[in-house]
């Protein structure tokens, strides 16, 4: 199967957009990710998938902690910045939760201790044990077919 066909198929799954952050010593590193999921309620576990070539892989392995911020629809520029699509250095005003940098005003900020790392193909699945989180109101930044999208105003079905 062709890689492009596989990517196109996976792009048909609408996702939220997250920024994964961690701190190693005094150095902060972040990356945009839409490969995120909840894993377990007891214990509370979440998962993020990181390419083996990404610098974030080494940061998480060495720090043993990471944070995940669910972006709101007004934070598209932060998504692009942490995806490396904006070639400038910015001073990010992080929101600190449990001594971990998270994205200020995100819908959700989650802080995790690294529970397990599993190599899977060309990615590492980092499973984090949630140690704290905060929730805010707002609309999510979503991603579908390689583009940012906004939620429609369609009626809810019960």
Question: What does this protein look like?
Answer:
With 158 residues, the protein is an alpha+beta fold. It has a single domain (16-149), classed as Electron Transport, Fmn-binding Protein, Chain A (Pnp Oxidase, Chain A), CATH 2.30.110.10. It is built from 3 helices and 12 strands. Strands 3-2-6-9-10-5-4 form a 7-stranded antiparallel β-sheet, with helices on both faces. A hairpin with a 2-residue loop joins strand 9 (108-120) and strand 10. The radius of gyration is 16 Å and the shape is globular. 27% of the residues are buried. Residues 153-158 have low confidence and may be disordered.
- Secondary structure category: alpha+beta
Q: β content, as a range?
A: over 45%
What can be said about the biggest beta sheet?
7 strands, antiparallel
Mean pLDDT score: 93
Task: Tell me which CATH architecture applies here.
Answer: Roll
Query: What is the number of domains?
Result: 1
* Spatial arrangement of strands, main beta sheet: 3-2-6-9-10-5-4
Number of strands: 12
**Which CATH class is shown?**
Mainly Beta
Determine Rg (CA atoms, Å): 16 Å
Helix share bin: 10-25%
Q: Counting H and I runs of at least 4 residues, what is the number of helices?
A: 3
Q: Name the shape in a single word.
A: globular
For the record, what is the CATH homologous superfamily label?
Electron Transport, Fmn-binding Protein, Chain A
Helix and strand string, N-terminal first? HEEEEEHEHEEEEEE
Low-confidence stretches: 153-158
The CATH topology comes to Pnp Oxidase, Chain A
**How far do the termini sit from each other?**
39 Å
């Amino acid at each position: 199967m062709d890689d492009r066909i596989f990517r196109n198929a996976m792009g048909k799954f609408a996702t939220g957009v997250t920024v994964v952050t961690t701190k190693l010593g005094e150095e902060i590193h972040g990356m945009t990710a839409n490969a995120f999921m909840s894993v377990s309620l007891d214990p509370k576990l979440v998962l993020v998938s990181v390419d083996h070539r990404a610098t974030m892989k080494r940061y998480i392995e060495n720090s043993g902690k990471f944070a995940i911020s669910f972006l709101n629809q007004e934070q598209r520029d932060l998504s692009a910045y942490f995806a490396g699509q904006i070639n400038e250095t910015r001073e990010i005003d992080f929101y600190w939760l449990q001594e971990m940098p998270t994205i200020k005003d995100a819908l959700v900020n989650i802080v995790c201790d690294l529970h397990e790392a599993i190599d899977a193909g060309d990615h590492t699945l980092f499973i984090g044990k949630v140690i704290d989180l905060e929730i805010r109101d707002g609309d999510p930044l979503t991603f579908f077919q390689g583009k940012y999208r906004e939620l429609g105003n369609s009626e809810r079905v019960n």
